[in-house]
Amino acid sequence: MLRFLARRVALTIPVLLGVATLVFSLIHLIPGDPAQAMLGESAPPEDVAELRSRLGLDRPLLEQYGTFLRDAIRGDLGRSLRTSQPVTSAILERMPATIELAAAAMLVALGFAIPLGIAAAVWRGTSLDHAATTVSLLGISIPNFWLGPLLAIVFSIELGWLPVSGRGTWANLVLPAVSLGAALAAILARMTRATLLEELREPYVIAARARGASRVRAVVRHAFRNSLIPVITLIGLQFGAVLTGAVITETIFSWPGIGRLLIQSIGFRDYPLVQGCILLIAVTYVAMNLVTDLLYGLVDPRIRYE
Amino acid sequence: MSRIGAAIVLITVLAALIGPSLAPFDPSAQLLAQRLDGPSDVHWFGLDELGRDIFARVLAGARISLLVGVVVVSISSSVGTLLGSIAGYFGGPIDEAISRIIDILLAFPGLLLAIALVAVLGPSLANVVFALSLIGWVGYARLVRGQVLRAREFEFVQAARALGATTPRILAQHIIPTALPAVTVQATLGMGGAILAEAALSFLGLGVQPPTPSWGTMLNGGRTHLLDAPHLTIFPGLAIAALVLGFNFLGDGLRDALDPVTREKRVSSR
After folding, report:
1. Do residue A247 and residue B112 have CB atoms under 8 angstroms apart?
2. Which helix (H) or strand (E) holds B49?
3. CB spacing of A263 vs B223 below 8 angstroms
4. Distance CA A25, CA A261 (A)
5. B120 contacts A26? CB cut-off 8 A
6. At what angle do helices B231-258 and B54-90 cross, to 10 degrees?
7. Contact A277, A258 (CB under 8 A)
8. Is the peptide bond before B211 cis (omega within 30 degrees of 0)?
9. Is A266 close to B115, i.e. CB distance below 8 A?
10. Window from A157-166, A224-233, B79-88 with minimum mean pLDDT
11. Measured between beta carbons, which residues in chain A are less than 8 angstroms from residue B109?
12. ipTM of the assembly?
């Protein structure tokens, strides 16, 4: 087990290095002079030169890269151009809001998907199954940047039940969480149905049925637990989609998280902050994939020996 | 389901090709006095914040969405198929290099890298296509690499090699065709993904810029009028969801039709 852990963690290091390299090179992809682009065309040359020097853009590329990596490892991602606040602390301030939203979206997704997937598998081929399949296909196809405003129109504007934006109370969380969790719920429901149907064909479930267990009991007591393994993996793999979705959902509902900070920073051409947000989201995603792989190896010993 | 998907896609393609010339209004014509008017007999989907006919703009937006989908999928699938087959066929350091690049690009969740690229390159249709293609090829390369690893051991491939066929000929005539069914399914689902991604970027203000009618840009314009004119949000969103649903139905149907395992299961479950 320790060898598996060490190998999997070691494999992550070159990926993280690649991610950091890509994020570093972003600023050099800006057409023309990055410092001029950040300050605008009308900025005086001395201001542009000062910013160029402050960001180290006047130093050799390799030296810039080395400094970026060294600082990033120490958690120093530079300062915001607009507010002069350290990028790391600006991101850390917004992180609880994004974690809260992502966790709530995951809960919404699981709360809808698991019962829907089980019902569709147990009553396979019935109108309930067709309805569940259609609902999940709709969930995958409806973009969250449309679902969010639609939910706001119905539940905030027409019915007046929930606030349309902001953060603070549980009521503020409902619409963003449903909007962000809907697509994940749809994917998970499809996966739960498919894996449960696979499990229901296994000899141990057929044996349970032969001993007189009802279909529902065979699902709940026997097949469901085993079908959860791929579902858990999918949740981990879909975490990236939740993080990217959060960028859009936070923008729609004015949710003060990292996603909104990223879009605001792009608008202000605050590139150190843009780089910081992108790096943090990518590193979180890599870490989540690592955790998922490790959990999977823990649950299913066959993975460790491959 | 796949027939419904094919019908939705076909209707959208027709709407994009001949719709704008049949539409009773110019998508850019402004009727400022009637701005934000709701749906009526004359303006079926109502008018937007500048008094432009939303139905005409949805039809014109179909062109942008399909154009982005077709170009992104064509570039991504060609580059991905080529690099995936090279990695799978040659193995060794070439495979290692391509696989590491794939790993790094896959370390960025979905749209994030596209957002980052468009943020630094500047918002435009060309940059959206570039960014989405740059992240899009990875999925195809991984898929094709796996297929090629399997196919290179087939007897007919070894026979071609023994007969002295050149590597490009073996790849083009014998190996890549074995991966094409899987690539076709991925490309169909990828059309939906590319259309969604373009709409998302445009919605965030990072994609197609106004006044060009793109469904995502139209949704973005509707955000400030949720209270007084929800039709600005409803119709472009409906168009995106319907087209993406169409491609998802079609992709699912193709996968079932082309995958022998699924086909067998379906037959045995009847």
Report:
1. yes
2. none
3. no
4. 21
5. yes
6. 30
7. yes
8. yes
9. yes
10. A224-233
11. 239-241, 243-244, 281-282, 285
12. 0.85
